[in-house]
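User: What would this chain look like folded?
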Amino acid sequence: MNIILKKTLKILKWTGIIILGLTVILLTVHFIGKHYNNRTPDGGINETMYIDVNGQEQWINIYGENKDNPVMLYLHGGPGYSTSFIDWPALRKLAKDYTIVNWDQRNSGLTWIHDPKYGGITPEMMRQDIDYVVEYILNYMGKEKLTLLGMSWGSMYGGDYATRHPEKIDCFICISASVDEYAEEYINEAILDYVEGRIDFREAVNTYGNELFLFRDPFEATEDISGQKKYYEAQKTAWHELYQNDEEAIKLLEDYDPTVYVEYFHNPEDEDLKKKVDKTEETEKKLWLKHGYDPDALFDDADYSPIAAMVFNPYYSLWDWIHFDTETIDDDTYEMICADFPLSEITDFEMPVYILQGSKDCQCGALQKYFEQVNAPDKEFRVIEGGHSSTLAKSEELAEFIHEIAEKQQAGK
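Assistant: Here's the prediction, encoded as structure tokens.
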């Protein structure tokens, strides 16, 4: 018994020593990386601060390689979902052309960690926040205008500001743009057109893209069971088109029957149907992964290491990571805020408008239709391979897109 106890204690001792050693190494690596990446470029700027914005101390970082460059304010997604924990390698690649201001909005990221506020967030409060932040940045940097770069919800937030204060905006850029309920309504109308026979499969794909069949479900568009099944049969056809030369994928599709979703939707208590749905979802996940896209992953297709970006993050301390949270705005508030910033209703801009969208983003087709209605001095819609987060994760392609815009802006002055 004593021998077993001694061996157990010895194992626990060495386990503790190993864990302690790894912790020390991790903390040391994080400390060195944090300070190394927090250097200020020669002739540039790198300043982090908390500013009082309508009763909450909100985090901003100003980073650029040349103080004379135009200023760009990055508006993250959400509302309530800051990307400051992982976005710095991507945003810094834009610093050759712009001085980048990264702002964690109300109840997001480092703002939430530093000064959490509970409840009471309104659309008007969000408008007051961005009004104050833009004015603060312009005064701080000695500029009359800046460029807005909005991601997802940030495109809705930025579009609202750009139309309220066009005199302060040089250019409006959207990445992974979101156009509120318009996208859902538009896609549902497209699904209905297909299932009711107003357009055929080829016309549907050519007009709306494969994502019409690969990202959606038909249950909001139609209550007709035969129409719902017709939609899912088209989904299988779309997969076949994508993988017509891939024997492994064709094998997966042999037993793939997405119409089981319809049966389960109308019989949700049926356990046998539930098992079939689970199996179908597994196959679908494999098909997505073969397509080079994991719908559940955020930065798997990044051209930089997400893990390294977090470990060497120049802004986050160990305390910040301990208190990190991505769900800082409740669902009701989230929906209320989004509903009050409908980008779909904004089509006339006094400044150039540029959109970069992932080809597998579920709103890509809807965004293209929206963009056709946009009136602006200059505009461009560009698609890159990937999903909703790819426009930030594929930092080289983002930097190239931004660089071309900067050159256009400079040539126009």
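The CA atoms of residues 180 and 342 lie 6 Å apart. If you want, I can go into more detail on any region.
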